[in-house]
Amino acid sequence: MKNPIPRSIWTVEEPERLVEIIDQRWLPHKRVVNQLATSHHCYRAILDMEVRGAPLIGTTAAFGMYFALLECKNAGLGFEEFAAKASHLRSSRPTAVNLMWAVDEMLKFIQPNFNNGDVLNATWQKAHQLMEEDATLCRRIGEHGVALIEEVFKQNGGKTVNILTHCNAGSLACTEWGTATSPIYQAHLKGIPVHVWVDETRPRNQGANLTAWELNEAGVPHSLIVDNAGGHLMQHGQVDLVFVGADRVTRNGDAANKIGTYLKALAANDNNVPFYVCLPSTTIDWELNDGIAQIEIEERSQDEVRYIQGKVDNEVKSVLICPEGTSAFNLGFDVTPARLITGIITERGITNATEQGMVSQFPEKQAL
Fold first, then answer.
1. CA distances (Å), 82 to each of 12, 19, 116, 128, in order?
2. N or C end of the chain: smaller count of CB under 10 Å?
3. What residues are annotated to the active site?
4. Which one, of 296, 276, 288, lies nearest residue 250 by Cα?
5. pLDDT of residue 6
6. Which residue segment(s) compose the domain that 291 sits in?
7. Is residue 128 part of a domain?
């Protein structure tokens, strides 16, 4: 099954090794491709949200580790200086666990091979491997999640299945397929009629800018809604399923995602609408067991709330939407407690949002 959306990250081999990304800050009005050729380019791309979404951040960081190694080798620097560059990459975003996971995976690979003559080629291939694994994991999430859509389709007598999602957990947040969108794309490709309620997702409007762009490119029917409309739609039976992504999930099933996800889970719970969190296993933080107490919530720039970006007179502009002197408090994420989550969908299947359920899918993590 072919992904209907082009990849959000890819590599160039000649005349030099580069990584290219879609600069997501400009979507949907412009498709800007940026080249990443240094570890600092990768750091800035993550920090400034040229790339965003936990899996894509991880992939970008993996290539950032290759560039860090290249820089150290060209300058005759040792492993200690390389480790400092790795720490710098880790500091770019605090919440998305894939960032830390990717940096640690690359460190584990590079450290014993640091002085090998072929370490640069091997590291480039390792970063490629992590990128391809991300694509595979997201495809498998969709293969499991599409069964839920098929079940609803049969139960409602062949009517369109209405799915609500929050923020962007699509191809643009991953290498391809996405997490929350992977089941939707696969249902659409199978000919199952689906319709997606797209939360605008203030601030930064990732739903309006990114999810709507993706769904439009893929030809999936969708409607943009304000963030506060979801509860009303659920009350009136207009939402069959809620699919969201995650930036970090604890071993007991608590899920950190874009701010506002918790409110959607509360509304879904009150209206008996199934609420699923879709994620690759690389997004699970097995060392945490209380998301509300333990997950660090990123506080971002006030201007993401105070200004809104849009197209005016054929130019992309930022517009102030509040009085000049008004300050803003901008939390990037909230945590949905496991008790509000119907199920967790990973590359290994669908399970309960409990420690028992999580470990049943990943028994190798039992002893952690």
1. 24, 20, 15, 20
2. C
3. 247
4. 288
5. 82
6. 144-365
7. yes
